[in-house]
Amino acid sequence: MKLAFTTLGCPKWDLETIVSKAVEYGYDGVDFRGYLGEMEIYRLPEFSTDIENTKKKFKDASLEIPCFSSSIRLFTTSEAELEGFLDELNQYALLCKEFNTPYIRVFGGKIEDTPRQDAINIVADNLRKMLKIAEEYQVSLLLETHDDWTNCEYVEEVLKQAKSNYFHVLWDVHHPYRTVNESPELTWKTLGKSIKYTHWKDSYITDDTKRGYQLCLLGEGDIPLERMYRILKDNGYSGYFTLEWEKKWWPDIEEPEIAFRQYTTFMNTVAGEAVK
User: Fold this and answer.
1) What pLDDT is stored for residue 275 in this prediction?
2) Which residues of 74-107 are buried (b: 16+ CB within 10 A; e: fewer)?
3) What residues does the Xylose isomerase-like TIM barrel domain cover (predicted)?
4) Is 72 helix (H, G, I), strand (E, B) or coil?
5) Angle separating helix axes 152-162 and 116-137, nearest 10 degrees
6) Residue 145, SS3 per DSSP
7) What is the pLDDT of residue 207?
8) Which CATH fold topology does 2-274 show?
């Protein structure tokens, strides 16, 4: 089992801390989603002018960067915004080449009042342009089950439109179950052959009118995480199990020193139970 965490969970950690804590807590990789306040990390010296030093830190620690989690959205009707996303994709593709990273996470995005089929057609058109870059750099785009593309049938339709070996699915195991009441069995049945990467989090229902749920340490909520793990392992999934601890957006949840250590303990326990 390969474990990683996204840097969304440690927005105040510098590179040395990220690397040392990843090793200390038993992780295999780090998924970059921002660094010290900058969400688009390719703008920073650590991933541009000083990139060789960063590569050495990861190599010396035997850590991978399995995915770069971008801010790219597939749905946009603005040509200027699309050009910006294409430039962002090119920047992340260059980083993938440097770090031997196979994946770039992308969002479907909010479609607002656009009819679903029209939105799918727009996404398909934009995606064709993005996939030219992905194919050039031999890197795959991962559409996350998120926002207006959480339902498995919507993601499946985009996959059918794309028809590409460079376009797959990131199953955020939390969102479909929590936000659209989709069973993990249905998610896997519909998307399983395309799921190459996963994000993990837990929560419980609250009266919060904005979100309707509260994030919590894994195992303290009611997301059926053990069930999801078994579905993946029983079907031969060999990708990463990545903790997406959203400390950046939820500042009141536990500090990364607590959550990151707890995650590896929890997942190793689940893995042990699954083989009994």
Assistant:
1) 54
2) bbbeeeeebeebbebbebbbbbbeebebbbbbbb
3) 20-252
4) strand
5) 50
6) coil
7) 87
8) TIM Barrel (3.20.20)
Strand 213-216 relative to strand 240-243: parallel, antiparallel, unpaired?
unpaired
Count of CB atoms situated within 10 Å of the CB of 128: 12
CA distances from 192 to 134, 186, 264 (A): 22, 9, 24
pLDDT at position 211: 84
> What secondary structure letter does DSSP report for 254?
P
Mean pLDDT of all residues belonging to the chain: 96
**Beta strand pairing status for 140-144 and 103-107?**
parallel
Mean pLDDT within 116-127: 97
pLDDT digits (tens, 9 = 90+) for 149-193: 999 999 999 999 999 999 999 999 999 999 999 999 999 999 999
CA–CA dist 74, 148 (Å, integer): 11
- At 170, give phi and psi (nearest 5°): -105, 115
Residue 255 DSSP symbol: P
pLDDT digits (tens, 9 = 90+) for 60-72: 999 999 999 999 9
Cβ–Cβ < 8 Å for 143, 108: yes
Going from N- to C-terminal start, the domains of the chain cover: 2-274
Sign, CA dihedral 198-203-205-206, equals negative
Sign of CA dihedral 187, 188, 189, 193: positive
